[in-house]
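Sequence in, structure out.
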Amino acid sequence: MSAKDHNPPEITRLWPTLMLRHRLPGAERANPVLVKLLTGLDEGKAEFTTDYLSGNLFDHEHPAIGWLKSCVNRAVLDYAKAAGVDYELDFYLQAWGNVNRFGDYHNLHNHPHAWLSGTYYVQVPEPKALPGRSDRNPGAISFYDPRPQANMLAIRGDPQVDPEHRILPQAGEILAWPAFLHHLVHPNLSDELRVSISFNVVLRMRREYLP
């Protein structure tokens, strides 16, 4: 068979996991205001970061919160379009603040009962050279392949080879991902606060959503 007679095979990329990452316009003006707001709320509540179900930060009437909520709504629409969802979704956003001091971290987890999850980064300390182990990733967030042991027989160059995707976010960036995706936040090893706002995108289920 000659090369010109060869019909290329059809290759299908199955089960993609989409990750949205975007720097929000206006973040430079909004972030100092959000830092002041969130640290003030944190001072008034002992479990501000961990008690994320006790309220919805996006119900707050502060203009900077309203700005961020509109940006998240836009990001959800962009994500849905990239995922091939070509119909209107009925959803609501549930959000909470995170104020991480030196040593604070978030264990491996996912977000049940939501469609998407995400985080907006308000203040992220600059990485600094630290004594001790060189494999630490202070302030980074790691995401893990949802298919157990999918990398067991991966070879060099195979996109399945690395079961972890690690991002060092910057202030002003938003990330969004499927809520089922396991992730963890590495410890903050800076004396500067690491401040972010996390959110869930919760669908009001309808019959037309069913595959």
